[in-house]
Design a protein that fits this description.
about 400 residues, alpha/beta, Rossmann fold, 3 domains, 4-stranded parallel beta sheet, globular
Length: about 400
């Protein structure tokens, strides 16, 4: 996979923050060498976060995020500031741009405190250095730049690359579960919700992970499992399916073959599989009138039979036999206050980066609200959760 085709969710997210007219957008344009953000002397020109995917060497594929000014005012200004602060939930590296003539104010100190609370590596950039007459007294604590002349921009890029910590604790998708030459059976249903002419991102990424291990990926639909198993002399090491066909795939897959779902693989890859499995048990304590949040990390056109708005409410209502209220959220809109919910059922998070997915799980845990993802929930209500966790014996202990 080339750097240009790296999914957004797998890129390092670099957020640029600062007050209005600190030159934040100009610095973003200088770093990207493109006019990504609109630049103006008028305060508050950036009204919504602006995203740009690019390659930032030597770091590699990144997402650059330009945010609204942290000192915006008025009713709309407060909403813009809220949007800027929300970006922290997905930020791997933060760059705070300060007008070097103004220095660091209480507003900048406040955002620095948030960086530190969220344990986000950050840089402080003193911009507009071209306006300083005496540069002999510059502090080594900061990176000094001039977006106007380009001074210090290359140095800033180098510092950004140095700030990113290598995260060796991230689980692979599947390659630690298989060996070279193993067969992996991937069950991909082709229905009205399937994207025409292509596979969805988790399926693509799982295939790539299998190939990187020098194993063999066999992709079929849910009606071909028995035929494939009968015609292959070698058994698959593991079967991975879409959560929506868990029930049928479980019936057609012999018990001596490991079985799981794409959603469960991704819960481990960039979420918290243990916490999400714990959350499934909350289904048993739901009562009439309880409110459930069904949350998705992306926005998409919902069709009849949509998993989030149709199938999961139906399955949950049938399983509990309770009159439950359902609310939904999508994209970046994840509620800060979760106290009204008895359970959160979240998608697999394929469009979210690891930091944001883990942030959402931590929010729920901190507020004492159980959270489960689609794949784990579907396996639970269909009575096959233990079977679907067979590749993860350490997690199976939670169900005993």
């Amino acid at each position: 996979m080339s750097l240009n085709s790296t999914p957004t969710s797998d890129r390092v997210h670099i957020g640029f923050f600062g007050k209005r007219n600190a030159g934040k957008s100009s610095v973003v344009n200088a770093v990207t060498n493109q006019n990504v953000a609109v630049v103006s002397d008028v305060k508050g020109t950036t009204t919504d976060p602006v995203y740009k995917t690019m390659e930032l060497l030597p770091l590699g594929p990144v997402v650059i995020i330009d945010t609204p000014g942290l000192d915006d005012i008025g009713e709309l200004g407060e909403l813009r500031v809220k949007k800027a602060v929300q970006v922290l939930n997905k930020t791997d590296i933060a760059v705070l741009v300060v007008d070097c003539l103004d220095g660091i104010s209480d507003i900048e100190k406040k955002i620095i405190k948030k960086f530190e609370e969220k344990k986000i590596p950050y840089l402080i950039v003193m911009n507009k250095i071209d306006l300083i007459d005496n540069q002999g007294e510059l502090s080594s604590k900061y990176v000094y730049t001039s977006a106007k002349t380009g001074e210090g921009i290359d140095r800033l890029k180098e510092f950004i690359s140095e700030k990113f910590p290598e995260n060796e604790s991230v689980f692979p998708i599947i390659n630690d579960l298989i060996e070279p030459a193993d067969f992996v059976l991937l069950v991909v249903p082709i229905d009205s919700a399937a994207p025409k002419g292509r596979l969805i991102l988790p399926q693509q990424q799982t295939i790539r992970d299998i190939l990187d291990k020098n194993a063999i990926a066999i992709v079929i639909n849910e009606n071909e499992i028995k035929m494939v198993l009968e015609n292959f002399d070698k058994k698959p090491k593991i079967v991975v399916c879409d959560s929506q066909v868990f029930g049928k795939v479980s019936k057609d897959t012999p018990n001596d073959i490991l079985l799981t779902s794409f959603s469960i693989l991704f819960a481990r890859h960039k979420g918290n599989l243990e916490e999400l499995v714990r959350g499934a048990a909350a289904v048993e304590s739901l009562e009439d009138g309880d409110t459930i949040l069904i949350s998705e990390g992306c926005t998409h056109h919902r069709q009849c039979g949509d998993i989030g708005t149709c199938k999961i409410p139906k399955w949950l209502s049938e399983y509990t036999n309770k009159k439950i209220n359902f609310e939904t959220s999508s994209g970046t809109e994840f509620p800060e206050n979760l106290s009204k919910y008895k359970l959160i059922v979240h998608c697999g998070g394929c469009m979210l980066n690891e930091r944001e997915m883990k942030y959402r799980i931590r929010c729920a845990v901190r507020q004492g609200i159980p959270i489960v993802n689609y794949g784990i929930f579907i396996a639970y209500v269909h009575g096959i959760l233990k079977r679907s966790l067979s590749p993860f014996p350490e997690i199976l202990k939670l169900l005993r």
